[in-house]
Amino acid sequence: MNGVYLTLNAGSSSLKFALFDSAASSADPLLKGTVAGVGGTPAFTARGADGAKIDTGVALDGASDHAEVIARLLPWLAAQHAGRPLLAVGHRVVHGGQHFPEPTRITPPVLAQLQDLAPLAPLHQHHNLAAIRAVAQREPDVPQIACFDTSFHRTQSHLAQQFALPRTLTDQGIIRYGFHGLSYDYIASTLPEHLQDGADGRVVVAHLGNGSSMCALHARKSVATTMGFTALDGLMMGSRCGTLDPGVILHLIQHEGMRADEIETLLYTRSGLLGVSGTSNDMYVLQNTDTASARDAIDMFCYRAACGLAGLVPSIGGLDALVFTAGIGENSALVRTKICGWLDWLGVSLDDVANDQAATVISAASSRVKVLVVPTNEEAVVARACRALVR
Ligand code: ADP
Asked: What pLDDT score does 41 carry?
């Protein structure tokens, strides 16, 4: 039976949605959109398959959380795909722990297991699960599929996943899970188109958005990544600190009297670009702010991204290609220039004009490492899982 798949990505303050034709294997949706400002003043935008804005929106006045936004969105979406049934809803779920190495049909026991993982992704998992429950309430007969940001990294070696902690903790699941897996999965699927025979070579993908991480790929599989047990580790981010000496946390507890919940708020929501600049967590805003602290925050973001990349290179034995993706990676020529400025020793050299134009290939002809800008498409990976699991 032909119909549509709905993909949902419930972030901390946003809901991204897309509708895919079940009969087509295209990565392009029939429509996609975002509700920004969930929890505050929600703002709706949607675009059709041709990229044109859809004017008839959803009335979201008074919709105070993801559940209410979804309750208003579903009837609007039903009108958009009138005549074609909704066959499945696929969700991006940030943490799948050790139990979910693959996309999974959501049942009550699965939902309970995902709930148990919520403390490991405090900024995201609750919202992902709220979206699943809201759909179940409105459309109890429609199958729901969870697609995990952690799954793509389950190809990594024990060496790459283990912390230097006592083995009993490793056995309890305190390991490096890695995140942004749907984005890396999508980028990996595009490499043959962009790199031809080099697609199976040594590639680092830099997913730079509000949350940022990098992944080293070999043969298009994840070999190592900068994020760890939670989405706090690794690169500096919009409001998250990235790699931090654990001794700082001990100091804050023992000598500053801070509680665990205060430290969680500090590290997840008051650090990163926001903490260093003192003004914003948003790269676009910082690039347009002429202050020393804004420049310092951008410089630090880029320096630490380059250090993060350098830390991945041993895992794949060198570097053949570097791919920038996500909001900052796709749109900030300045950030790409600054990061690559730290990497000429690796054979990275940019073509400044191509970089300014955000061409697909932005490396200079003489560059040993090919540098690309490839827009990510996490929704396409979720839709693919719906196609595979719902027949
Ligand atoms: P999320 O992790 O929320 O999905 P995105 O991938 O959408 O985040 O990335 C958001 C980031 O991308 C923000 O810091 C935003 O400022 C940045 N960004 C978007 N467009 C531009 C631009 N033209 N120049 C610089 N930064 C940009």
From this structure: 86
Ligand 1 centre from 75 Cα, in Å? 30
Active site amino acids: 149
CATH number of the domain encompassing residue 314: 3.30.420.40
Ligand 1 site, residue 238, Cβ cutoff 6 A: yes
CA separation (Å) from 154 to 165, 230, 332?
20, 15, 30
CA trace torsion 267, 268, 271, 277 (10° rounding): -170
Q: Are residues 203 and 123 in the same domain?
A: no
> Is 327 a pocket residue for ligand 1 (Cβ < 6 Å)?
yes
The answer to the question of residue 109 being in a domain is yes
β-partners of residue 217 are: 203, 222
48 CA distance to ligand 1 middle (Å): 22
Low-confidence ranges of the chain (pLDDT < 70): none
Structural domain count of the chain: 2
- If asked whether residues 332 and 213 sit together in one domain, one would say yes
**Same-domain check for residues 143 and 199:** no
Assess if residue 10 is contained within a domain. Answer: yes
Q: Which domain holds residue 114?
A: 4-148
Chain segment 251-275, per-residue pLDDT in tens:
999 999 999 999 999 999 999 999 9
Report pLDDT for 390: 87
In 3D space, the residue among 253, 223, 227 whose CA is nearest the CA of residue 318 turns out to be: 223
How high is the pLDDT of residue 135?
96
Say yes or no: CB of residue 210 within 6 Å of ligand 1.
yes
Whether 181 is covered by a domain: the verdict is: no
Asked whether residue 161 is domain-assigned, the answer is no
Whether the pTM exceeds 0.90: the reply is yes
CA dist 145 and 182 (Å) reads 14
